[in-house]
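Sequence only, no structure available. Ideas?
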Amino acid sequence: MINFFNSLKKILFKSLSYCEKKIFLIIIKYFKLINIELIKIRKVINLYLYNNYYNYMYISHIDTVSESNVKWILNPFLSLLFKKKIINRGIIDMKGSFISVLFFNKKILNFILTNDEESVSIYGIQYTLNILNIRKKKIYFFMGTEPTSENIIGDYTKISRRGSFNLKIIFLGKNKHCAYIGKNLIKMLFKNFFFLKNDVKKFNILEYTNIFCGNNSDNFLSNKLFLKINFRFNFLRKIIILKKKFLKFLISKNVYIVWKLSGIPFFCYKNFFLKNIFNIIYYIQNIKTKINFLGGTSDLRYCFYIYQYSEIFELGLINKSIHKINENCFLDDCLILSIIFYYFIYGIK
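Reply:
I predicted one. Tokens follow.
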């Protein structure tokens, strides 16, 4: 347990997106990693640990979201135990689970560790996998450790991801003073436009992410209104249905629309390795794992797109405090996850 906590302490420092090369060098030196390659492009650094004897790959990231301006119980980048918990920005997503996998298995792993996951995620896992694909590196199975558990380690795992569709809509009208009668773009939007959210069925999510008028006056209405929407869906046909609803409503309106598909849904239904991990979780935790189909596989989607016949799953720590103030997890949870992956990896190697 002491050695495990000391390993965690080595990476529980501040490491936002595009963190420096020295952070990777600390990891390489402490864990005495060999057969490594640093793949760098612009501000992005990817640490690739390769082992040609095995055709499976572990995907992870070292960067975290900002600690925010709200005061924490402890310094968000100190590695201290508080009531058996580690309070640290990034311990859940996903430094704790990275150490859990690496601690026992560094000699039999292929893995990619990037500092570009919480940002635009263009030159991170996606870029590195394309390089490996060009080199004709054969990989049949990918695993990740985004926080999937909800109440106890291993109660949920994930094998799919919803698609993401972004819309930017610009409504055009006329300037108006509040003292005079006339059309109000904002009132029109709230009265007639928010019907869409009620039409979204279960397992799909439609969120209004931004409304902006560009007007700082208290008694004057702008002639422009900007609306941004994000739609998460399970099937591509849902986009066609959504577009029809928009076009029917906006056919007589003075608007401009920009559509952008930012993520394609997938479902890894053919998955031989799930049975293995389910049996191990049942043996260690005495629970039956359920599959969560609501997305959350993060960078594993690139693995599924680039290596189209590969199998994937995601299993990680409890996600109740992810990206929140005082992000925390029990040290015991990290150790349990480490034992689960130890038995799993040694069982498939």
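Residues 164-260 form a domain with the Alpha-Beta Plaits fold (CATH 3.30.70.360).
Hope that gets you unstuck.
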